[in-house]
Predict the structure.
Amino acid sequence: MPVPPISSLVLIAYSLQIFNASPVEFKPPYAIQVDWARSDCEKGNLFADHLKTVFTPNACADVVDLPSTVSSPPHPVTFEFREVQNVIANLNPKKAPGIDGISNKMMIELPRVAVRILLFIFNAMLRLEYFPNNWKVAVVKMIPKPGKDLTKAESYRPISLLPTMSKLFEKLLVTKLSPILAERNCIPDHQFGFRRQHSTIEQTHRLVQVIRSAFEQKSYCSALFIDVSQAFDKVWHEGLILKLKLHLPTNIVKLLENYITSRKFVVKEGEFVSLPEYIASGVPQGSILIQLAQVHTKYLKKRPDISRNIFFS
């Protein structure tokens, strides 16, 4: 008996789902060159291979020699017990756990003695400028993009689940980093993304004001809108670390360098979990420390032949 074409199989599956009293989620097979990935194992490995190419830095035509002597004086940073308590109290109990299996609800129920142990661990990480390797593994789940061909791997959006312990430490660290970033003017004024009290509505007002001002002065006003594909997935680690060295204390940069580099991911598809793969570029999705990548926008070049350059990001 000949096997029906894949389009017919998809149609049959959807028909069965409609008439089934207790429907189950249907996942179409994915294309693998001349074959199809049908099992969770095949799909998971297909997604893992796809993401390996995504988390790879873009090729550089010229060899770039980065200075290694750029540094700022150390800035002692420590956490206090009440800070850890406050962060734990504000955790969302409905968030899914990462590869460690530790949920936010479990963290909220911790006794005081356990919180003190966490405080000791977090302060040791600051002192040693070290981020545990087990906390640098993300579980990636692929979510279909609406209106896309679901038989192609690129039609799915990766959602990363980070370890709960990692996210807890990040929340504490960002409370120490934010004042330093603001004091040293690390984030440019035109950067609104991932910043508190900086909404898209305010950016729209800025844009309207610039256009209106140009009309009043009877001058030209041109706009260029750029959507950089995989902008955060392709962040160049060495370049980002160099820019952080220009603004942040040495001890914090070393910790962040350890945090950003040598990260791994696994893909979870159904009950299948792929083997760990290294992440060679990008910043961790789902991490509140993603705002570190905003330092890149500070170095956008201005056109010298234009009287006024205004950036929105």
Observations:
- Residues 39-299 form one domain.
- The radius of gyration is 24 Å.
